[in-house]
Amino acid sequence: MLPFDEERVVGPGWHERVYAVVRRVPAGRVTTYGDVATVLGSPRVARHVGFALAALSDDVRPPVPWHRVINAQGRISSKGDVVRAERQRQLLAAEGVLLDDRGRVDLKRLRFGFRELDD
């Protein structure tokens, strides 16, 4: 087994690091899988952010607002899971985040910039 390398995406602590970043996204805002990966220092592993969120169990505390993470086109990435996609849409709508007629969120207006936390 290779030693743990903090720069590697797969390894101990990866999911927890993803969850910690996603918890920073406020209600009524969204971020992308790529944004989360970039904050974690690995901008090319957006897919692995999705894997971490897909592995999320309901009993994780504090809760992780997984529904606030969407794809770079502003769409919900459901991979064919229409029940989960509808749940995500409902959770976003409850926070005032609505999808347009093309099924997209207005990223220019609602995308959370993690630099906002530094202000």
Task: Please characterize this protein's 3D structure.
This protein is mainly alpha-helical and about 120 residues long. The chain is globular and about 40 Å long. It starts with 13 loop residues before the first helix and ends in a 9-residue tail after the last helix. It has a single domain, classed as Arc Repressor Mutant, subunit A, CATH 1.10.10.10. The chain has helices at about 15-20, 35-40, 45-55, 80-95, 105-110; strands at about 30, 70. The chain has a two-stranded parallel ribbon.
Quick take:
With 119 residues, this protein is mostly helical. The chain has 5 helices and 2 strands; from the N terminus they run H-E-H-H-E-H-H.
Q: Determine Rg (CA atoms, Å).
A: 14 Å
Question: What is the count of β-strands?
Answer: 2
Task: Please give the alpha-carbon distance between the first and last residues.
Answer: 42 Å
**Spatial strand order of the main sheet:** 1-2
| Average pLDDT reading | 89
- What kind of sheet is the major sheet? 2 strands, parallel
Which CATH architecture is right? Orthogonal Bundle
Report the order of strands and helices. HEHHEHH
CATH class: Mainly Alpha
Total tally of structural domains: 1
Secondary-structure-based class equals: mainly alpha
The poorly predicted ranges are: 1-6
